[in-house]
TrEMBL record:
Similarity field: Belongs to the ABC transporter superfamily. Macrolide exporter (TC 3.A.1.122) family.
Record EC number: 3.6.3.-
Keyword set, alphabetical order: ATP-binding, Hydrolase, Lipoprotein, Nucleotide-binding, Transport
Organism: Posidoniimonas corsicana
Listed name of the protein: Lipoprotein-releasing system ATP-binding protein LolD
Pfam families named in the record: ABC_tran (PF00005)
Upper taxonomic lineage: Bacteria, Pseudomonadati, Planctomycetota, Planctomycetia, Pirellulales
UniProt gene name: lolD_1
Length: 223
């Protein structure tokens, strides 16, 4: 059974009369590494936000493990505990340390302060950032910021990680390191990955490549 499914998804923005997602149906299996590639403005972010329950469709629906988002008693709860998000511009809190940023999503759950600390250290190790635990995001390079943001996205052990141009602000060396981390998260932790890109290395690494144009899926290639 699919872990994530889109059925006849439509998103229309009334102002400007834009159809960013134009009748998209899509089925994502557990453990897949899917990349969505398309030009700027084609609607990729809108599609990802719908898949992640961050935005509501004009029509159609998204299902997580067979249950429509509209049927979940708390979509907030689903988002916090089963889905992880990585953005192009990190969205870390500048007044918190790296170690504290990683713990922010953990406040959704019942974990003790000691458990949160221990889990955050493990995640810092996973992204090779222990040496920056007490630093503010402002003191980190952009590559390091994204590694911390990835650690935070894994705070509640999500089944699916949704990433919107995660290497968009990084040079190729830092970009490759972030993609190495995604490979590790995919291979060693079995997380389903959905990663948006406008091309390049992300598209090369994914096992399944969806080509997107003007709100429509125009290619769906597995390799
Ligand atoms: P991409 O991620 O491929 O660059 P987006 O999903 O960001 O594409 O945008 C798709 C289209 O929808 C664009 O024409 C954009 O201007 C428009 N759009 C995105 N968000 C909004 C919004 N909140 N209100 C109106 N139009 C929007
Ligand atoms: P592991 O060996 O822990 O399974 P990798 O060696 O594949 O993981 O590293 C995952 C990511 O972390 C890659 O982007 C890699 O470049 C980066 N990395 C590895 N070691 C370090 C380090 N000591 N400091 C900073 N980044 C590192």
């Amino acid at each position: 059974a699919p872990i994530l499914e889109a059925r006849s998804l439509v998103k229309r923005y009334p102002n400007g009369d834009v159809t960013a997602v134009d009748n998209v149906s899509l089925s994502i299996k557990p453990g897949e590494y899917l990349s969505i590639m398309g030009p700027s403005g084609s609607g990729k972010s809108t599609l990802l936000n719908l898949l992640g329950g961050l935005d509501t469709p004009t029509s159609g629906e998204v299902l997580f493990q067979g249950t429509p988002y509209s049927s979940f008693p708390s979509l907030d709860q689903l988002r916090a505990t089963h889905l992880g998000y990585v953005f192009q511009s990190f969205h870390l809190l500048p007044t918190l340390t790296a170690l504290e940023n990683i713990q922010v999503p953990m406040f959704e759950g019942p974990r003790s302060a000691a458990d949160r600390q221990a889990a955050a250290w493990e995640l810092l190790k996973l992204v090779h950032m222990e040496h920056r635990a007490r630093h503010s995001p402002l003191q980190l390079s952009v590559g390091e910021r994204q590694r911390v943001a990835i650690a935070r996205s894994l705070a509640n052990d999500p089944q699916v990680l949704l990433a919107d141009e995660p290497t968009g602000n990084l040079d190729s060396k830092n970009g490759s390191e972030v993609l190495d981390l995604f490979d590790k998260i995919h291979q060693q932790h079995g997380v389903t990955l959905v990663v948006i890109t406008h091309g390049g290395e992300v598209a090369d690494r994914a096992q399944r490549l969806l080509t997107y144009r003007d709100g429509r899926v125009v290619g769906d290639e597995r390799r």
